[in-house]
Each structure stands twice: as C-alpha cells, then as structure tokens.
Amino acid sequence: MTDYDVIVIGGGSSGLMATINAAQQGTRTLLIEKNPKLGRKLLLSGGGRCNVTNRTTREDLITHIPGNGKFLYSALNQFDQEDIIAFFNQAGVELKEEDHGRMFPVTDRARTILDTLVDIINDLGVTIRMKDPVDSLIYDRETKRVKGLTTVAGETITANSIILAAGGRAYPKTGATGDAYAWAKKAGHSIERLYPTEAPLLSDDRIISEKLLRGVSLRDVNVTVWNGPVGEKAIVNHQMDMIFTHFGYSGPAILRCSGHVNQYLHATGEELCHLSIDLAPNETLEEMKQTAEEAREKQLTNILKQWMPERMAEVVCLLANIDATKPYKQLVHSEVDALWETVKTFPLTATGSQPIEKGFVTGGGVSTKEVDPKTMESKFMQGLFFCGELLDINGYTGGYNITAAFVTGTIAGQYAAWGSFA
Ligand SMILES: Cc1cc2nc3c(=O)[nH]c(=O)nc-3n(C[C@H](O)[C@H](O)[C@H](O)COP(=O)(O)OP(=O)(O)OC[C@H]3O[C@@H](n4cnc5c(N)ncnc54)[C@H](O)[C@@H]3O)c2cc1C
C-alpha cells in the first residue's frame, strides 16, 4: 500500500486547485511545498489583487494564450473560465469584472482567493507539508509508472499518482525555480526552450539612450511587432497602454509583445527586432490630416498634442526631421508625409527583454505534445500529471495564466484521483 493516493508537488495556483480536486474524490492526498507558506506568487498576482480569470468567450480566451492556448480546448470543455467564477461564488467569494474582462475579488485582495483555497483544502483533510522541498521523482521503468518521490531531507514518499505543479522560472523568489523540469525529463519528456514572456523590452534606440521620453506613458496606442523591417510582415499587434523607461519599453502593450520579440530574435538570430507604434489608432490618416488642415495656422506640437503627450509630439517632429515650432501650413509635401508616417508607424527596436526571472510568465516548458490534453497525464509515465506554468503554455497578463493554471490544475487533480484508484 502506498503512503498516499495522490501527491501534489507545489502549492501555487495550479497545485492548490489540483489538491482540492484530487481530495474531493475521496483520495488520501498530500500537498508538498518547499516554501514556509502557500501561494506566494498568487498573492503577488494582479498587483496583489489577483486577477483570477477573464470573462470572455472560449475562443477569445484561447487567442489570449499565445503559448499553446489550443492545447486547452479539451480541458476547457470540462472546466472553463465561467466554472472558475462559479467555483469562487460557491465558496462565498464575490468577484467583479474590470476593463478587458478581467475578474478580481471584490475585496481587491489576493489574500481572499488564497485563504479560500487553503480553507477548502484544510476542510478536505489534506495532509500539507511545508518547508519540505522535493528532490526527485521515482519511476518504475518496467511498468512505466510513477512510484513516489524523495525529499531534499532524504525521505521517500510513495503514491499512485503524482501531480507536478511546481511552476516555471519567472520570479524565482516565490519558489518557482524550475525544479520540476528535471523530473519531467527523467520521465522522458522534452522541455521546450524557456524564454521570458510578459517582460519589459530592452532597447538601444536613441530615444532611450538620450532619455528623450523617459517616464512618458502613452494611452491606448497600437504596437506592432514586425517580422523584419517595419512594414514587412506583422507578427502581432496590441492596442493598449505603454511606457518609456530608462532601459527600453514597458506597459501592457509591450509586455504582450515581449514573448513574440524573444521568439523572433531566437528564430532569426537577428540582433534587433523592429516594432512600431500607431500613436492614434482610433483615427484614420485622412481624419487626422483633415483635423490638422483645419488648424493649419497652429504650431505642429499644438496640433499633435490632442493625440499624444507634448514630449512625444516633440520627438515625433525630431524623428521626422521637422521643426516642431513651425505652423502646419508651412510644411512642404515631403515633411507632411514624414510627419504622418512617424505618427502612424513610430519606429522602435528591441534587443530582447529583461531576463526570465524578471518577466511575469515563463515561455516554454514541458512539451504539450507529450501530455494528454484531456487528462494532463504524461504520455510516457502512468500516474504522472502536469499543470500550471510548468507546461509549455503562456498567456498574456489579464488573468489568462491563472486561468490556465486553475483549469489544468482542476483536470490534473480529478484524473490523478481517478487513476489512483485503478
Ligand atoms: C508579479 C506577477 C504578477 C502576476 N499577475 C498575474 C495576473 O494578474 N493574472 C494572471 O493570470 N497571471 C498572473 N501572473 C502569472 C501567474 O501568477 C502564474 O502563471 C501562476 O500563478 C502559475 O501558477 P503555478 O501553480 O504553475 O506556479 P506557482 O504559483 O509558481 O507555484 C509553484 C509552487 O511550487 C513550489 N515548488 C517549486 N519547486 C518545488 C520543490 N522542489 N518542492 C516543493 N515545492 C516546490 C513553489 O514554491 C511554488 O509554491 C503573475 C505573475 C507574477 C510573477
């Protein structure tokens, strides 16, 4: 007889949900965590308010998970974002919807979410071990079954099913130090290259090195990542806010572009990735030209100020090689063209992003090709299950990563429990 039916390694977003779902099936469940506390990253998420999920359609949810969102189809058929909302409502947690469908607890405290999950786990009689890092997994090579684990302290614990919920590599201070990749490899799994996503971009552009726009933020602009020079072929574009920093670019639109920039640089071996900003995406060029014509006596910066901050307007003129103090009526044709081209496709370059440790989410991870999308079980090792950021799944900020963690955690917990009785 094994020590437990199910062991969950990692008490973060996905592991807590996996534990609840395994224990609800009546299994003898152990949750083992290396930190002295559970859910450290969950507490940081959403600026400490925990963006638990996103109220959107299934299709839209999947498009907001650019790293293998499609792998989640089958899991979402069993438990989706509406089920997450219902789960918390049933547990007595009221959620509220904010912009872009983002769902938060009405308390505005991630602690509400964490405490709720931990209370359910305690009510289910789960054994919880903290400050107990797992060292390695034990597999039976002949039967291709998981057998148990050993802890760093040297103890062996056996189980019929083991769920790996040990997270990725982003924000290692929270406990996500990537320990589980080696355990997955040992079972025969491939680890897709790890890279930072949802991370600020680094740049050597003149506007950054000369601090021309440091601290300036732009509202609701459209940022495009190009496959080659600007205008070649768009990889992705995002209309949101962004900010100029001392090392490059940040803010929601940039974070969403960052994984694509890193992938492009890796795939092409190029040193730079080109991006551009449409500084007024809600107006056509014709509409803007018309507005400028109607104010043709005014100085350029005064006209441009209605669409962007003044410092940005000055830099637009600088890049377009036009005197910003000129009235619009004095521009020659070539200057008019240069001005509007800069407004609509303001050029940027990025040399990469901040490292994985500083990004919000890990790109890459355990290959989804080798995991059953309906159950989250390993295709190589019976009784071995995966969930959360450890998998090669990454979403944009906006609740998509916690959704992926809760969905895969729920499925892994249920099937690990059912498998453990077999
Ligand atoms: C600052 C920040 C803000 C974020 N905000 C949002 C947001 O608003 N919305 C959103 O959807 N996503 C957000 N994310 C991403 C999201 O929080 C994560 O994708 C998600 O929490 C990952 O859950 P997980 O269970 O896979 O991993 P984690 O939550 O990292 O949990 C892994 C756990 O495993 C434990 N562990 C690791 N190794 C071992 C070992 N050897 N033995 C025992 N235990 C081990 C760790 O200590 C940790 O507790 C944010 C991330 C960060 C860093």
Q: Care to describe what's here?
A:
Residues 195-361 form the RsdA/BaiN/AoA(So)-like insert domain. Residues 5-414 form the RsdA/BaiN/AoA(So)-like Rossmann fold-like domain. Keywords: FAD, Flavoprotein. InterPro entries: BaiN-like, BaiN-like_dom_sf, FAD/NAD-bd_sf, RsdA/BaiN/AoA(So)-like_dom, RsdA/BaiN/AoA(So)_Rossmann. The chain is α+β, with helices and mostly antiparallel strands and 422 residues long. The chain folds into two domains: 4-195 and 357-421, FAD/NAD(P)-binding domain, CATH 3.50.50; 201-353, Orthogonal Bundle (Helicase, Ruva Protein, domain 3). 33% of the residues lie in helices and 24% in strands. It is built from 14 helices and 19 strands. Strands 1, 2, 6, 7, 8, 9 and 19 form a seven-stranded mixed sheet that branches. Strand 13 and strand 14 (248-250) form a beta hairpin. The protein starts with a strand and ends with a helix. The model has no long low-confidence stretch (mean pLDDT 97). The structure holds flavin-adenine dinucleotide (FAD). Flavin-adenine dinucleotide is lined by residues 9-15, 32-35, 40-42, 44-46, 51, 133-134, 165-167, 170-171, 174-177, 179, 360-361, 388-390, 397, 399-402, 405. The site of flavin-adenine dinucleotide (FAD) has 41 residues, from helix 1, helix 2 and helix 14.
